[in-house]
């Protein structure tokens, strides 16, 4: 399923899952809050009903006492009916809803007192005084029971309120844990989806960087959503196409160079015969023409050889044989190899920093550094200094080489690494360069995953090489 889905669909799915999780927790919290609010409302209504019932029981008891006392004095049937009505109302208040909230013995005691009071209302006149005393005691006991009922109702209400508060607090804590858990899970899901979806993008970026750095021998294989895999297949097609074009270019250069060298050799041989006057004596003008032809054929041969050398360097840069190398020792060996050149100009060469070990192709990095050293020697004035400096920082190592020569003209700085580009400033009294030395340096440094730049220091030229720190 995930392999068939596109990046956009998977991203939408991730957002929907996270939104669904947070929405579910929010709805759960809302339902919990609504349930607790409903319980609180019911409890409040029940407390009001019980309080009203206890108050009505007390009021009916007072009405019963008043009617009973008047009946004993006046013996009026109407007063007896008032007593019975008040008693019925008090019993109704006791039965609903008080009886379900009170201890059974308390309800039985109240009913027993009511029965005793009702019995005192019947009897001969001669016992009226005694019955009135019994009635007073009965109502006093009934009032005491009413007070205990009211107190019991109050305690029950407080207990229910406390239980409701405990449930509210438990619900609040549970809701807080759910919200925190949902937020943590949402963050984890977001990070997981982000890393999972970013992985093919990183592979895609590495593949594009590899194509940009001309690493055409690394197949492009992108796993992930359907549209990313489709893009990976297109990049693989582009890699194969670029490799094919690169091979065609190299083959074309070899063929053209070879085809040019044969007639060029014949041309040089012919010019040499003319200069040697094999075909007859030459006049001064003819000799000058032969000299010019000889110079240009030599220059053309040098250009063809430079073209072949640059093409070979670009091809070999993709095949590195890395090994553990001490860079200070490598530079020292290069300095010794060019000792005659820099001693002839009475130069001083200083190597600072190190020892510094790195996993590099010593031959190709040595070629790059040798080209830089050769340029620095050629451009340095007599008796000046050339300085190498090794440095290290997290993730990178640096190699600086600086001379005291004329430097690079501002107009040439952006093109100094272009193949066959020669700046306006050339070494005094020296041969004009071919313009491929720095291009080869850049090819070999890029093959190591590094970069070279011309720093804006003055006087002289200051180059800095930065390589990934893969030392062991």
Account of the 3D structure:
This protein has 472 residues and is of the alpha+beta class. The chain has three domains: 7-191; 226-316, Helix Hairpins (Orthogonal Bundle); 323-468, Histidine kinase-like ATPase, C-terminal domain (Heat Shock Protein 90, 2-Layer Sandwich), CATH 3.30.565. It is 67% helix and 9% strand. The protein is built from ten helices and seven strands. The chain has helices at 7-74, 77-95, 104-120, 128-212, 226-275, 284-316, 327-337, 339-344, 362-379, 437-447; strands at residues 323-326, 348-352, 357-360, 385-393, 396-402, 451-455, 462-468. The strands form two sheets. It has a five-stranded mixed β-sheet with strand order 2-4-5-7-6, covered by helices on one side. It has a two-stranded antiparallel ribbon with strand order 1-3. It is rod-shaped and about 185 Å long. It starts with 6 loop residues before the first helix and ends with a strand. The relative contact order is 0.06.
Topology, element by element:
Blueprint lengths: L6 H68 L2 H19 L8 H17 L7 H85 L13 H50 L8 H33 L6 E4 H11 L1 H6 L3 E5 L4 E4 L1 H18 L5 E9 L2 E7 L34 H11 L3 E5 L6 E7 L4
Parallel strand pairs: 2-4
Antiparallel strand pairs: 1-3, 4-5, 5-7, 6-7
Helix pairs in contact: 1-2, 1-4, 3-4, 4-5, 5-6, 7-9, 9-10
Q: How would you summarize this macromolecular structure in one to three sentences?
A:
With 472 residues, this protein is of the alpha+beta class. It folds into 3 domains: 7-191; 226-316, Helix Hairpins; 323-468, Heat Shock Protein 90 (2-Layer Sandwich). The chain has helices at residues 7-74, 77-95, 104-120, 128-212, 226-275, 284-316, 327-337, 339-344, 362-379, 437-447, and strands at 323-326, 348-352, 357-360, 385-393, 396-402, 451-455, 462-468.
């Amino acid at each position: 399923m995930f392999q068939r889905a596109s990046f956009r669909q998977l991203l939408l799915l991730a957002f929907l899952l996270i939104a669904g999780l947070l929405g579910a927790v929010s709805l759960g919290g809302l339902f919990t809050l609504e349930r607790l609010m409903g319980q609180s409302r019911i409890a409040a209504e029940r407390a009001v009903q019980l309080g009203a019932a206890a108050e009505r029981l007390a009021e009916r008891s007072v009405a019963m006492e008043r009617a009973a006392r008047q009946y004993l004095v006046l013996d009026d049937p109407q007063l007896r009916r008032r007593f019975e009505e008040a008693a019925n109302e008090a019993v109704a208040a006791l039965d609903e809803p008080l009886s379900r909230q009170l201890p059974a013995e308390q309800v039985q005691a109240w009913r027993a007192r009511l029965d005793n009071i009702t019995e005192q209302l019947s009897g001969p006149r001669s016992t009226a005084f005694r019955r009135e005393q019994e009635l007073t005691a009965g109502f006093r006991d009934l009032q005491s029971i009413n007070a205990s009922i009211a107190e019991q109702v109050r305690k029950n209400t407080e207990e229910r309120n406390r239980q409701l508060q405990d449930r509210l607090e438990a619900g609040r804590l549970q809701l807080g844990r759910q919200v925190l858990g949902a937020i943590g899970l949402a963050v984890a899901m977001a990070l997981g989806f982000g890393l999972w979806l970013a992985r093919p993008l990183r592979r895609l970026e590495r593949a594009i960087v590899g194509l940009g750095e001309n690493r055409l021998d690394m197949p492009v294989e992108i796993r992930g959503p359907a549209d990313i895999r489709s893009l990976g297949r297109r990049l693989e097609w582009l890699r194969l196409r670029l490799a094919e074009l690169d091979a065609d270019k190299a083959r074309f250069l070899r063929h053209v160079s070879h085809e040019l060298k044969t007639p060029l050799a014949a041309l040089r041989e012919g010019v040499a015969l003319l200069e040697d006057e094999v075909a007859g004596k030459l006049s001064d003008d003819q000799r000058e023409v032969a000299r010019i032809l000889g110079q240009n054929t030599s220059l053309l041969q040098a250009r063809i050889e430079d073209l072949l050398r640059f093409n070979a360097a670009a091809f070999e840069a993709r095949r590195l044989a890395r090994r553990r190398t001490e860079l200070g020792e490598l530079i020292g060996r290069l300095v010794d190899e060019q000792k005659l050149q820099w001693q002839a100009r009475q130069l001083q060469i200083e190597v600072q920093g190190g020892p510094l070990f790195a996993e590099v192709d010593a031959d190709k990095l040595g070629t790059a550094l040798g080209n830089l050293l050769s340029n620095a020697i050629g451009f340095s004035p007599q008796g000046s200094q050339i300085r190498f400096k090794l440095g290290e920082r997290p993730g990178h190592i640096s190699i600086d080489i600086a001379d005291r020569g004329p430097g690079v003209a501002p107009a040439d700085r952006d093109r100094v690494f272009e193949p066959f580009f020669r700046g306006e400033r050339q070494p005094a009294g020296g041969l004009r360069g071919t313009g491929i030395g720095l291009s080869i340096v850049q090819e070999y440094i890029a093959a190591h995953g590094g970069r070279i730049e011309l720093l804006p220091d003055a006087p002289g030229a200051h180059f800095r090489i930065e390589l990934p720190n893969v030392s062991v």
